[in-house]
Amino acid sequence: MFPGGYDRGVQNTPIPMADGPDAERCDAVRNRALLLEAATALVSERGADAVTMDAVAERAGVGKGTVFRRFGSRSGLMQSLLDHSEHELQGAFLTGPPPLGPGADAVARLIAFGRARLAIVELQGDTLRAVEVSPELRFGGPARQVSLTHVVALLRQTGAAGDLELLAQALLATLEAGLVLYQIRELHMPVDRIADGWETLVRLVTGTPSAG
Amino acid sequence: MFPGGYDRGVQNTPIPMADGPDAERCDAVRNRALLLEAATALVSERGADAVTMDAVAERAGVGKGTVFRRFGSRSGLMQSLLDHSEHELQGAFLTGPPPLGPGADAVARLIAFGRARLAIVELQGDTLRAVEVSPELRFGGPARQVSLTHVVALLRQTGAAGDLELLAQALLATLEAGLVLYQIRELHMPVDRIADGWETLVRLVTGTPSAG
């Protein structure tokens, strides 16, 4: 269902085994998860700027060398952090519980998708925006492709007609980190307002008035 | 109606007078218009890359020194070219003939606005995209402010309710040079398709089905 893009987006997490080299590999995976967890906690508590190699090492209770061995550099760490968030979001909308995952109706899933993405932008917007500076990654990156395919599929389920690819791109454009950070920081819009705006847009585009 | 932003967006073109320093000033204005016309012709015939100081001078039949005196550098020239296009677009939607200008209904004006902007992106997208790399100019620049105010006003006229500022920003996000150039160049979408997508989006958002 999500060829290419999705496989690249999802990290190759090997199934952990009990012995020998697999046990080592298992340690590496656990280690990596531990470090990303530490970095995520730092971002949400103190913002992206607080994520230094030192701070992550301290938080995770490992040596700084371990962090460097695992991610190479701070920008490698930030990129892995984003991949991790994307991976989690993808898992949530593909196989997670409703309303983000299957089981809810398509409009509710679209609304939940935007709200979930806005939450990522709020926490990791600076890293996302740095990635978005490259037009190829901004619009053509694997994570974007998966999101686009997902939004197109949901739009189709709502019965929307016409050029769904363009419509999906229009919707995704409103969730871009550059725009959302500008709305939050320069226009001082609360994220809740931006999320409500997303819901309004989805309802207008799909012809689904609010239940309330 | 367009405080601040609009005044900054519109160039300070002095009213030409017949004598003395005013005549000189009048020459300068005419000169500038001549050079921008030459540059515009070059862009539309051979693309933005063809616009060099030499080529503009040759095309306008003046010395290269004149072009440098007027614009300082190639990037100064490209910026002036953009200002010029923005100025023309603003003139067209504020006081020009319908459907872009007053006289048409608000939905038709919104549709015409997007089509006109897409035409600018098609011709001058590279320059626009270079400007968009700065988030402040991308979302906060004077030209953007004028467009935003215009779109909000038209949305209000259509009877659209809710958070019109966010809705206007969502609409404008789909016309950004970075996205549009990606659609044209990487996805090989014809500009007509993108323009039709804009019309669809406007009709959905304003609840105005196509007449056809």
From TrEMBL, chains A, B:
InterPro entries: Homeodomain-like_sf (IPR009057), HTH-type_TetR-like_transc_reg (IPR050109), HTH_TetR (IPR001647)
Sections of the chain in a coiled coil: none
Keywords: DNA-binding
Domain HTH tetR-type, residue spans: 29-89
Keyword DNA-binding set for record: yes
Organism domain of life: Bacteria
Cited PROSITE patterns: HTH_TETR_2 (PS50977)
DNA-binding region ranges: 52-71
Record-level Gene Ontology MF annotations: DNA-binding transcription factor activity; transcription cis-regulatory region binding
One Pfam match: TetR_N
Residue segments, region Disordered: 1-23
Keyword Ligase: no
Protein name: DNA-binding transcriptional regulator, AcrR family
